[in-house]
Design a protein that fits this description.
single chain, 273 residues, ten-stranded mixed β-sheet, UDP-N-acetylmuramoyl-L-alanine:D-glutamate ligase, alpha/beta, two-stranded antiparallel ribbon
Length: 273
């Protein structure tokens, strides 16, 4: 039995909810084989990051080559790339790739507003990494930073996702976040000349830690399995929804998203705009 191989290039989350830990769980859920190149070791809880220790760039490269030179990788996703040396090295490797979907979760600004990479790394992400992507998945704060403008409402988000697609010549899934309404979580996806609204029931979850990592990894897994971009994005959004609805307590005041039942019914509505 041949199983699709996915590679995540991202940081390690000591609390297990985000980063490579979340990515590997998503890869496994969608019946792909997960591999990783760890870019940073973080000390964090479900509510925040207390330290980030970058992995030396040579070690990141050795991890990447150990996977790509021995396995047939069908999709790659990137998360936190930490510094300019790591971003540049990853881009050098991607320059050589042909036909493998590259999903870039920019991981520049957390939902809390905290910056997660160094400033010179941010410049390289915009200049070199995003133009190499098959799909990018920014949150609203990251999209505002990339476009250097506020995105105050859903109309602005639709314009932004279309502008990002044009700027970087790739598909873009813009996570609606706090712009979602009181009943639905809304994201926007532009593929080529078409823009889609993806809507799922809003979950009043006890924890949303790791949703961005989970979404991008799930999309990568579905693309690795041969799904088209729209089907992959809808399946990934449904997976995030059911994970949010399946939070469990992992400490006196700590909650975490848990794996949903396999083959949970998709509750995502996809509408072309």
């Amino acid at each position: 039995m041949n199983i699709p191989v996915c590679l995540t290039i991202a940081g390690s989350d000591s609390s297990g909810g985000a980063g490579i830990q979340a990515d590997l769980k998503a890869f496994a859920y969608f019946t792909t084989f997960g591999t990783s190149a760890v870019t940073a070791i973080t000390a964090q809880t479900p509510s925040g990051v207390s330290s980030i220790f970058p992995v030396p760039v040579d070690e990141v490269l050795l991890q990447y080559r150990a996977v790509t030179e021995t396995m047939t990788v069908k999709a790659i996703k990137t998360g936190m790339l930490t510094n300019a040396d790591i971003v540049g090295t990853v881009c050098d490797q991607f320059d050589e790739l042909r036909g493998i979907p590259i999903i870039v979760d920019p991981v520049i600004i957390a939902g809390s507003g905290d910056r997660l990479v160094e400033e010179d790394a941010t410049e390289l992400i915009l200049e070199r990494l995003l133009p190499l992507a098959t799909l990018i998945t920014p949150n609203v704060l990251e999209a505002e930073m990339i476009l250097d403008q506020p995105l105050p409402d859903n109309i602005a988000l639709v314009e932004a996702v279309q502008q990002l697609t044009e700027d970087f010549d790739c598909a873009v899934m813009l996570k609606g976040g706090h712009h979602s309404d009181k009943d639905f979580a809304i994201d926007y996806l532009t593929v080529g000349d078409s823009t889609y609204r993806l809507r799922s029931p809003l979950v009043n979850a006890r924890s949303s830690h790791g949703t961005g990592c989970t979404l991008s990894a799930a999309i990568a897994a579905n693309l690795a399995s041969g799904k088209d971009m729209i089907t992959a994005a809808a399946a990934a959004k449904a997976y995030v929804h059911h994970s949010l609805a399946n939070c469990s307590t992992v400490g006196p005041e700590a909650w975490a998203m848990m794996q949903p039942e396999v083959n949970e019914e998709s509750i995502v509505e996809v509408e072309i705009l």
